[in-house]
Amino acid sequence: MVAVTTTGYIVSVFGPFFSDNSNNDASILKHTMINNYDDILQRIEENDILILDRGFRDSLGVLKSLGIDVAMPLFLGPKQNQSDVQDANNSRFVTILRWVVASVNARIKRFKWFNQVIPNSSLPSVRDFICIVAALLNCFHVSMVTPSPNDDETIRRMNSLRTQNNTLQIFLTDYNLTRNSIWNVTDIHNLVQSFPKLSMVDLRMITLGTS
């Protein structure tokens, strides 16, 4: 397990751990925090927020007891088929920020040795090898996120969208368009206007990602 910043730099490397029912993401994180592996608690400063996925949900109690704030996509409630608008917006807000974790793992797997089944005889050295890879990535790879002239506008748009109502859902409900039976197949050539073409600027504003 690796801890990374939101810009893609690897802060700490933990493990390896046995892979079984007792060693899921949440239990590993709890064990790491309680035992203060790699002085991780000293690396977390006031107002820092850990961005986690739903697999870490069972560690929230321990993190809260340690005074650590967490951001995580929300879960559906009992008998709930989909999230309400605000919960969905908050979950997207978190997802926008945590794509970096998957990208860092992808960078690690570009090293051939880590992109294959590792023999048991190498397990004692796995952490040393991945620490070497982490150091190389931190030193020679560019940051996942770099400052952009559009950063302020992106932040403004993210905060605006976070509190925005789902206008499409309201429209469908108001006009009773939520039933599948009322929809018909339409030939794209018979549309009043062609499908809009999006520029790279449009795509960036829609996805809030990096180019």
From TrEMBL:
Keyword Metal-binding attributed: yes
Names of required cofactors: a divalent metal cation
One Pfam family hit: DDE_Tnp_4
Domain of life: Eukaryota
Record carries keyword Metal-binding: yes
Protein name, per record: DDE Tnp4 domain-containing protein
Keyword entries, A-Z: Metal-binding
Domain DDE Tnp4 residue range list: 2-138
Organism: Rotaria socialis
A GO MF term: metal ion binding
